[in-house]
Specification:
The complex is a heterodimer of chains A (about 170) and B (about 140). With about 170 residues, chain A is mainly alpha-helical. In chain A, about 50% of the residues lie in helices and about 10% in strands. Chain A is built from 5 helices and 4 strands; from the N terminus they run ααβααβαββ. In chain A, helix 2 runs antiparallel to helix 3 (about 50-70), helix 2 packs parallel to helix 4 (about 85-110) and helix 3 (about 50-70) packs antiparallel against helix 4. In chain B, a hairpin with an 8-residue loop joins strand 1 (about 5-10) and strand 2. Chain B is of the alpha+beta class. A 5-stranded mixed β-sheet of chain B has the order 2-1-5-3-4, with no helix packed on it. The interface of A and B includes residues 30, 33, 74, 82 and 85 of A.
């Protein structure tokens, strides 16, 4: 594949349009300030311990923040030379999407699993309570476009020799 | 802590570079050197000025992405410490710090160093230039 390929041209046009859009916003907030705010939401509501209420709160706030990002971002400089602020803006726009998807996934998986504790899913003595009947699968979410619901794809986990059992960290 | 930073800025390999002076306040002892630069850059963006470019990745002293000279000493001179792990407690109020990229024509690893060196560049502000450094080794990409 060389640069005359349709896929390359499409990709190049998309990137140029995106850069142009980021530079044209001319708002008041730096990419870092948006990064910190979305990071704080994820840290608070989608961390090691998460709850239904907290995740719903995050899912209400992130789209608003993303909206503000696209209307109030400030990128200094231009797109024709090294511009780390522009690079960061591009990454933060992705972080907005992945942050929301992480919350969607965490809300969907209403069990405690691995190192993550869903606060509603605990044993009586406070251990992480799994739900192997409903969640014994690996999952991939398919991007369907901005503001579209992602599609969940599952691949069952089958264990032949080791039975799934409640973990104890005590 | 209030500091004066004298930072080498150069728009491209072929453009002339210069040291640009910035004053920064509110630096705390527990900040890392890169966090201090983040604060400077946030201030520059708020003033519609092009931030200082510097490379970094893990900020945990592991990846080897960050690095420049602080007062002429690589990574600021603390033993076994990269600039991301260099705490501001090693500096004192009213210090003037000179920051510049690697540059060593004789170095056998120049190709790698120059890649890192290219990263501490940005807008050229002639009004703040120091003429005796204009002839310094140019940045290479």
């Amino acid at each position: 594949v060389d640069t005359s390929h349709t896929a390359f041209r499409t990709g190049e046009t998309e990137v140029k349009d995106r850069i142009k859009r980021l530079l044209a916003i001319n708002g008041k907030r730096s990419p870092d300030s948006f990064h910190k705010e979305v990071g704080k939401i994820v840290w608070d509501e989608c961390g090691m311990a998460r709850s239904d209420a907290g995740l719903r709160k995050a899912l209400a706030r992130i789209p608003d923040l993303r909206e503000e990002f696209w209307h109030n971002l400030r990128v200094v400089g231009n797109g024709d030379e090294l511009n780390q602020t522009l690079e960061k803006a591009n990454r933060v726009s992705d972080f907005m999407e992945i942050a929301e998807l992480m919350c969607v996934d965490a809300l969907h998986r209403n069990e405690s699993c691995g190192g993550h504790c869903r606060l509603e899913s605990q044993t009586p003595d406070g251990e992480a309570k799994r739900d192997d009947v409903n969640f014994s699968y690996t999952a991939a979410w398919e991007w369907k476009g901005a503001d579209q619901t992602p599609a969940l794809h599952k691949e069952p986990l089958t264990f032949d020799y080791v039975p799934l059992a409640q973990r104890s960290y005590k | 802590m209030n500091l004066t930073l004298s930072i080498w800025r150069q728009q491209s390999a072929n453009a002339p570079g210069a040291f640009v002076r910035y004053r920064i306040g509110g630096v705390t002892a527990d900040m890392s050197f890169l966090e201090m630069l983040d604060m400077l850059n946030e201030d520059l963006i708020n003033r519609n000025e092009v931030p200082v470019a510097f490379e970094h990745d893990c900020r945990e002293g592991i990846c080897g992405s960050c690095g420049f000279l602080v007062n002429g000493v690589a990574h600021g001179g603390q033993r076994g410490t990269t600039v991301c792990q260099l705490a501001m407690r090693f500096f004192k109020d009213c210090d003037t710090l000179t920051l510049e990229p690697w540059r060593a024509r004789a170095s056998p690893s120049f190709a790698i160093w120059s890649l890192t060196g290219r990263l501490l560049i940005g807008s050229f502000r002639p009004e703040a230039s120091l003429p005796h450094r204009q002839e310094a080794l140019p940045m290479r990409t």
